[in-house]
Design brief:
The complex is a heterodimer of chains A (257) and B (235). Chain A has eleven helices and no strands. Chain A is an all-alpha fold and 257 residues long.
Chain lengths: 257, 235
């Protein structure tokens, strides 16, 4: 599994898609800087740069998590490279987990790059007494966990649908739908019938909730996040990753190539 | 060495292999021929575990092939050979090697020797995306040979090669066979099969239409030409 992980890293480090993602992140940092220096933002450089940067960085990371693994996996499966790899003494589980680990690390590297770029902006051009940049590691941790879940979901969707375009699109739909789950929670509490409350509860607790990983407010406005919340988030990440990857592995083991 | 009995494989209602029997003896150079859709690639995919037959047994040295130890002993070249385009030839062979043993300082020399075996030593550090079809085919042979397996399974190895490439590949295979390797290959190029293989299997409608030595096949159809024998077998 380690060799699959390592060579996937090498391959993707040279791939145009990763290069494009890094370039976009740096471009976003530059745009964040530009937008923060506009007159109407005078005096609020750090807040503007970070809110602009965090928002668009999340979009780039989302696109990377949705498309990069599917493109990588589908290219290997459809071109037949997979036949070469799976004819070696390895298992399908090792192959998929090695790929997952590599994409998770790449996602982490992109997140670190983005965090560092934003920290550099805030430190170099912003108010150095503003503590917001020092809270950027919160973004890093939450974003990495979100990426772990998203990647596992995309692996599962690709193994279920076997469609290189539909899988990331459905993944995106699930991601954005999860931002509207709060209304389901309200429904679970306020719906008149027990059945409706059950449906809302199932929807709320059964749907992967990516909104939980959004700590932008905490980074920008110092809204506190308790240790219990982080522990719960880590457990939630582990649970979803285990379920999604477990199902993806089960499907992949049964898949005819 | 490789024994297949009663292999049945269907895709939906389409029955591709209908109780196929095949025996590849140790040290033989076995040529598998058949029309398009006869089931050659499905047979190879079944051996390698890429598709799951409905019934039948595939044994390698008396053991089922669904173990990792079988994969230690086999080198495989698929029909459509494709590589990670951004790796170099040397890197890909190191990748292939890493499935069998840890990478050590001596591995680099072994990789260089394997690339030399297929006349690609000069291209070791070139990215695979710059390789021609023939070079990729030779790299495919190299990755199958990298761990010196006793059994080689090659699906249409002559496809896309120019006459010089074909001759080079024939030389490589003859050399490997002379070293005692067992080779099972499929091809539509019957003259290559006739020049190379001592045992012929003719796959017809998902079953073995003929299996035996090349002279026996030619004698049965009273011809000196494998293509003619193949044609008569199918009419």
């Amino acid at each position: 599994m380690r060799n699959i992980f390592w060579y996937t890293l090498i391959e993707n480090q040279r791939a145009r898609f990763t290069f494009a993602a890094v370039s976009l992140i740096l471009a976003i940092a530059a745009l964040a800087h530009y937008s923060s220096t506009l007159n109407y933002n005078a005096g609020r450089y750090t807040l503007t740069a970070l809110s602009f940067g965090l928002y668009f960085t999340r979009l780039i990371l989302l696109a990377y998590a949705l498309f990069a693994p599917v493109l990588g996996l589908s290219r290997e499966i459809e071109s037949g490279t997979l036949f070469l790899i799976l004819s070696k003494p390895t298992t399908r589980s090792h192959y998929l987990l090695g790929k997952y680990a590599a994409f998770l690390l790449l996602y982490g590297i992109l997140t670190v790059t983005a965090t560092f770029a934003l920290f550099f902006l805030a430190f170099a051009f912003g108010d150095r007494t503003d503590p917001a940049p020092l809270r950027l590691p919160l973004f890093l941790a939450a974003e990495w966990m979100s990426g772990a879940v998203l990647l596992a979901l995309v692996f599962l969707l690709y193994q279920s649908l076997r469609a290189p375009l539909a899988s990331p699109l459905l993944g995106a739909a699930i991601f954005f739908t999860s931002y509207f789950l709060e209304s389901s929670r309200e429904g679970a509490q306020q719906a008149p019938s027990a059945f409706s409350r059950l449906v809302y509860s199932l929807l709320y607790y059964g749907f992967p909730n990516f909104r939980l990983f959004n700590v932008e407010r905490s980074v920008l406005y110092e809204a506190p996040i308790s240790f219990a919340y982080w522990s719960g988030l880590a457990a939630y990440t582990l649970l979803l990753c285990s379920v999604f990857l477990g199902l993806a592995l089960a499907l992949f083991r049964r898949r005819e190539l | 060495m490789l024994e297949i009995r009663g292999l049945v494989k269907s895709y939906g209602r389409l029955e591709v292999l209908k109780g196929l029997d095949l025996t590849v003896r140790q040290g033989s150079l076995y040529g598998l021929i058949g029309c398009n859709g006869a089931g050659k690639s499905t047979l190879f995919k079944s051996i390698l575990g890429f598709v799951f037959p409905q019934s039948g047994t595939i044994l390698f040295r008396g053991q089922p092939v669904d173990s990792l130890s079988f994969r230690q002993s086999v080198g495989f070249l698929p029909e459509l050979v494709s590589f990670p385009p951004d790796l170099t030839a040397e890197e890909f062979l190191a990748y292939a090697w890493s499935f069998y043993a840890p990478l050590t300082p001596s591995t680099r020399q072994h990789i260089a020797d394997t690339l030399g075996e297929v006349s690609l030593r000069e291209c070791a550090r070139r990215r695979i995306r710059t390789f021609s079809k023939g070079m990729k085919q030779r790299l495919g042979i190299a990755q199958a040979l990298i761990h010196d397996p006793p059994l080689l399974i090659l699906d249409e190895p002559f496809t896309g090669l120019d006459p010089i490439g074909k001759r080079e590949l024939r030389t490589i295979l003859e050399r490997q066979h002379a070293r005692g390797k067992t080779i099972l290959l499929s091809s539509h190029n019957l003259s290559e099969i006739q020049n190379l293989c001592s045992v012929i299997g003719v796959l017809h409608m998902g079953k073995m239409g003929w299996e035996g030595s090349l002279p026996a096949l030619l004698e049965r159809f009273q011809t000196q030409d494998l293509e003619e024998a193949f044609f008569r077998l199918h009419t």
